[in-house]
Design a protein that fits this description.
The complex is a heterodimer of chains A (about 625) and B (about 325). With about 625 residues, chain A is an alpha/beta fold. In chain A, the strands form seven sheets. In chain A, strands 1, 2, 3, 4, 5 and 6 form a six-stranded parallel beta sheet that branches. In chain A, strand 1, helix 1 and strand 2 form a beta-alpha-beta unit. Chain B has a six-stranded mixed beta sheet with strand order 2-1-3-4-6-5. The radius of gyration of chain B is 30 Å and the shape is elongated. The termini of chain B are far apart. The chains are: A alpha/beta (about 625), B alpha/beta (about 325). Chains A and B meet through helix 4, helix 5, strand 7, strand 9 and helix 10 of A and strand 7, helix 5 and helix 6 of B.
Amino acid sequence: MSSTNKIAILYGSETGNSQDFATILSQKLQRLHFATTLLPLGDFNPNDILKVRYLFILVSTTGQGELPRNANETTIGSKKTLWSLLKKKNLPEGFLNHIQVAFFGLGDSSYPKFNFAVRKLHNRMVNQLGARELFDRLEADEQGMAGSNKGTGSGVEAVYFEYEKKIISLLKEKFPMMKDSQGNKINRTEIDTSLYLEPKSYLKLTGTLTEEKPIVNFVGDESVKFGKVVANNKLTAEDHFQDVRQFIFTNCEEPQKEIEYYPGDTALIYPCNFDHDVDAFLQNQDQWLSIADKPLEFTSGVPTSLQCIGGGIVQPLTLRNLLKYHIDIMSIPRTSFFMKIWQFATDVTRMERGQEQLDDQREKLKEFAYDEDMQELYDYCNRPRRSVFEILDDFLSIRLPWEYCLDYLPLIKPRSYSISSGPCDSNIELTMAVVKYRTILRKVRKGLCTTYLSELLVGDNTLRYKIQNNNLIKKELHDHPMILVGPGVGLAPLLSVIKTDNPVISQNIHLFFGCRFKDKDYLYGDKLEKWNSVGKISLHPVFSRDRENSPDTKYVQDVLWKLGPEMTDLLVNGKAVFFLCGTSGRMPLQVRLTVIEMLKKWGGFTDDESAKEFLKEMEKDGRYIQETW
Amino acid sequence: MSQIGLLLIHPAVTTSPELVVEAKAAAEQNSIKIADQFLINKVNEGSVKLKINTYNVIRYLTPEKREEIKFPKKLIGTLNDALKLGGCLYGLSDVYKIDAVVNGFEIIDEASKEYHWIKKQEIKTVPQAISLKSKSVSTADMGTKKLPSFKKAPLPSFKKAPLPTFKKASPEPKVIKAAVLADDLDDDLEDDEDDGVFSDSTKARYLDINNDDEDESIDEDDLVDGKTGNIAMIVCGKSKTKKKKACKDCTCGIKEEEEAEIDNIRSQQDKVVQFTEDELTEVDFTIDGKKVGGCGSCSLGDAFRCTGCPYLGLPAFKPGEAINLNSISDDL
C-alpha cells in the first residue's frame, strides 16, 4: 500500500497489542497536526521508505523469535515487503541514513527468544544500514522481569507511554510550528480530545436503489476462495469439556482439483458474525436501522485498515453486511476504541438518571481511553472478556455515527488453522477445538471463528478461506526419521505428515500423542492405532488424567524420556526431524528441556551448553520444528 | 457572630451516636451553631429538602474510611446550593475531587487545616462550548449546538425516577476534517538534510532488486546474539502491577484462584437475582450494609460498580427492576 507521509508508524502484531499501541500513537500525533502513515510492516510499500523521514516501529515477537506474520508478509499480492528489501545483502551501509527511527518491542520473557523481532530490525536498520536512532529502543516485557520495565512493577503499557512521550516531546521540539489552512506558520497546537478525527475514507449513501436481495459477494482480493463444507464431526465424547471437531471442506468451484499444500501449511479462515448478533447490535444502535440495508460507498476508496485484513470487501456494501462480515462486534475492544468513541456518548434520553448519568458515562469512557494505567479498562474489558456489544449495552448514551464505523469499531481478522489432510488433498481437513470458556459474565464466552466453523452445516458453501504455504518441513529432509510430538489438537498438522503417502514421507515415524482420557479426547484414536498396527507409525499415546490407561506417565515429555535412548539415537545419529505442535506456553518449553536432558544423558553431550548448541543447529537445519499457537 | 451549620449523617452512624455528640461539641467550640441535622439517605431520596444558600458549614459524618467514602455524586451540587458563598464542606475526600471542582468547590488540602471544600462559585447553568484551540481547525458541524455543562437542578431519586426535562440539546460529537491534519512537514525538513545522506536516486536503484533468491539475503538469525544491548529503561512506572493472568496450562495456582473468584462472583449473582421485584424496589442504594452496596451505582453496569458489588458480571439494569437471569444466562 502506498503512502506519502514523512512520518510512518509501522507495526507487526500477533494478537493486536502492538497494533493498538501504534493506533494510539498515530491518533496522538494526528491531534498534534502531524500527518502520519499507519500500516502493518508487511503492507508498507518498500519503495516508500525513501520518502520517510521519521519512522516508528512497534513490533511484537512470535514464540519462535520471528517477526509477526503481518510484518513479514503482505496481505494481498506482492511478496516484496520492507523487511525482505532490507535483508538484501547488497544494500549500501548508508541506505537508511535519511531516516530517524525509534523502536518499541513487545515481548514475553518467559520465551527464550524475548523481543528478538525488534532486535533483528534494530540491528539491521541502525547498525548495518545507517538509520539514525532518536533514542535507545524500548523493550516491554509482559512478565515485567526483563526489558525496559524490568523490576519496576509496571506493565507493558508503561513502556509504551514512555515511548510515546519521548516521540512527542522530540517532534514538538523539532517542529514547534505548523501551517494553518492559509499556509501561514502558526504555533503547533493540539486538537481537543473531544473532537473526532475524521478518517481519510468513510461511508456515505450512494443514493441509488438497491436490487432485490442481491447475492453477497466479496471483491478486491483474488486470492480468497470459497469453500463447501463436507464434514463437521465432533471428535470428543459428549460429556467431555472440550468440543474438538473434524472439519472438512472443498473448493466450491473445483471440488475435485488438487490444491497445493504440504504438512505444516495452514488454512486461513474468514469468520463472520451470526445474524442474531447483528440484529441485537442494530437494535442497540437503532438510529442505524433505517439505512441498514441501503447501498453505501466509500468517500475515497477502501480504508487501508480494511484492506490490510484481506479476504475482499463485502458486496453489496451495506451496514448490515459490514456488521456481519467485517466488524468484530463480539471482540474485546482496546484502548484505541475508547479513544475514538467516547465523544459519541451523547444520548441523554436513554439515561435513567438524566444528565448526571450521561456525564458519568462520558467521564468513564474517557477514563478508559486516556488513563495510562489501563487498570480500569483491563478490569472492565479484558478480564471478564467483555465484548464491544456488551459495552454498548452498558453505556446506552453511546450513539455511534455509522459513517465512520470502520474507523472506530474493531475489524474481524481471519484465523489460521493447521491442515490435517494429506498433501494437496482436495478435501481440506482441519482439527480444531471450539473455544468456549466462562468468566464472571453470565453469558458464556465463545471464540468467534471456532464457533462460526462449528455451526456451519454440511453443504454450506459460504466459507471464505486462503491456503498459506509455510514451508515448514524442507523437501530434502523427507525420508529422515521423524519424531512427531503433538498433544491435544497439536495432532492437527502431524496427521498431515502421516498422511503423506506418494511417496511416503518417512519409513520411520514416531508419534507422541497426549490427551486427558483414553475414552474421551483420544482424537482419531482408532485411526492412530490402526496405523500403528500396520507399521505406518510407531504410536506412543499418553493420558494425563487416566491412571488406568497411563499408569506411570502423564505427559508427552514423560514418554519421550522413557524412550530416551532410542529417540536420542535417532536425533543424534539418525538425523531425525523433530516436529513439535500444540498450544504455546509450558508444553513446548517442557519438551525442549526434556530433549536437552536426553541429549546430555544419552547423546554424548557433556553439558547444557553443548546440548543447546546442538539443538540450535537442528533448528537451523530445519530439523527441530515447533508449530505452537 | 455564630455561624450556621448543617450535620449530614450516614445511616451507619446511628450505631455510634458518640460521633454525633463529638461533632456537635467541636462545632460549638468553633462557634458554629448546628441548625439542622439530617440522614443523608433522606436527602438523597428527596424526602428532606435542603434550604438554599443557608449554611456556613456543612459536615458529613460517616464511619467509612476517607479513601473509601461512597457518596451520591448528585448531592454534591445540592450541597453547593445549600452553602453560602465561601461556606465550607467537611467530611468528603479526594474520591470526589472532580465532582467538587465541577460543582464549584475549591479543595483545601493543607497540613495546617482540616481537609475541606470551599464553595467558590455558584454553579453555572449556562452551557459551555468546547472551544477549539486552533483557528486553523474547521469542524464539520460546529454550528450552534453546544455542550451543556453539568446541570444544577436537583436530580431525581431512584424510587420516583422521573426523567428530568432538558432544555439543552445533547452534546453533539464534533468531527474534524482529515484535510486539516495534513501537515506533512514539507518545508521544515528541507534544511534537515545532511551532507552525508545519499540522494534518493542513488538509493532508488536498490529498490528494483526483484528476486526471491534467499542467497541474496542475509540470514535474519545472524542479527541476534541473545544479548540485550542498549535499551532505554522507563523512568517511572505509575501503573500498579496488574493481577497476573493464568497461562493456558497454569499449574502455579493462579488458575484455581481465578476459578474460585468466578465461582464466588457467580454465587453472589445467584443470591441477588433471587430477589423478588418487591424486595428490589425496597433496596436503598444509599445505605451501606444493605443487601446491595452503598455506592448507588449498582444499576449502572460493571464499569461503575465497586469491587465487591454483588451485581458484578450482570448487565446494567434499571433500579427497581427485577433481574431476570434466564434472559442472560447461557452457561457452559
